[in-house]
Amino acid sequence: MRMQPSVFELVSKFADEEKCIAHFERIRWPKGLQCPRCQSKRIMKFDAEGKTHKARHLYECVDCRYQYSVTTGTIFHDSHTPLTKWFLAIYLICSGKKGISAKELQRQLGVTYKTAWYMAHRVRTAVSEDDEFCRKFSGIVEADETYVGGKGKGPRGRSTASKVPVIAVKERTSGKVRLQAVENVSSSVLASFIREHVTPGSTMHTDEFSSYLWLDSSEFAHHAVNHSERYVDGDVHTNGCENVWSLFKRGIVGVFHKVSAKYLPLYLDEFSFRFNNRDEFNLMDKVLATCF
């Protein structure tokens, strides 16, 4: 398996703004320049330098007269931070399997904390719209739930109002996962989430939590393992989801330290995207493809 490019390779490849713009143009318009408003391919390019004596990289559509650049309508739009730093931020977010904090981004990029926080959340918003998130799971699918944040534990780890319930489904064959923060872990909430992300006829593996009992008379096959007796019963287990919870919580505690309920869904999307694409050689380019 090919390893991710090193930081040295990244900095060498995208040493200046011109190289970053050219690379992003190839990703955004692989078949040539196209107007983002009317999709016309009749484009004029402004090569003249602006007041700052830098290349403008500005285009105008011949048909609708719309002027735009490669960053128009993207997460980079209206940002004064150069693409060289944006590219490095995306690389750093992709590289660590538990993510990177805004404070560390601030140190690595030489920007303010406010700018680092803004960049990280823009990237999380972009990856949450990845088309792959829409694909339904099939075959053997594990389902489990946990609580994030707050203090203390309730029965079976399902805790008080200070914690946010999070539910997961994980496809056994692909190893991919979907995570979602919810208001509660009632049968109706779990049923809605599972039906949204799992193909009917699939086999669901869960623990014996009562909110999964509806699966016994549903469109899914259902096998449950009693965690008070054992964690694996033949091939029936939820260890895949348990591993995801372990990794995600270590990221919260060791990297981010604290995540508010308001922004937890974005962190879940970031983690899911990185986890589901952990074997991708050039994950940075895949993130760039979600940025517009």
Annotate the secondary structure layout.
Elements: H1 7-13, H2 17-28, E1 43-46, E2 58-61, E3 67-68, H3 83-95, H4 102-109, H5 113-127, E4 140-148, E5 164-171, E6 177-181, H6 187-197, E7 203-207, E8 221-225, E9 232-233, E10 236-237, H7 239-256, H8 264-276, H9 283-288
Parallel strand pairs: 4-7, 7-8
Antiparallel strand pairs: 1-2, 2-3, 4-5, 5-6, 9-10
Structural features:
292 residues; alpha+beta; Nucleotidyltransferase, domain 5; 2 domains; five-stranded mixed sheet; 9 helices; 16% strand
Q: What does it look like?
A:
It is a single chain. This protein has 292 residues and is an alpha+beta fold. The chain is built from nine helices and ten strands. It has helices at 7-13, 17-28, 83-95, 102-109, 113-127, 187-197, 239-256, 264-276, 283-288; strands at residues 43-46, 58-61, 67-68, 140-148, 164-171, 177-181, 203-207, 221-225, 232-233, 236-237. Helix 4 (102-109) packs across helix 5 and helix 5 (113-127) crosses helix 8 (264-276). The longest helix is centred in the C-terminal third of the chain and has 18 residues, at 239-256. It is elongated and about 70 Å long. The mean pLDDT is 91.
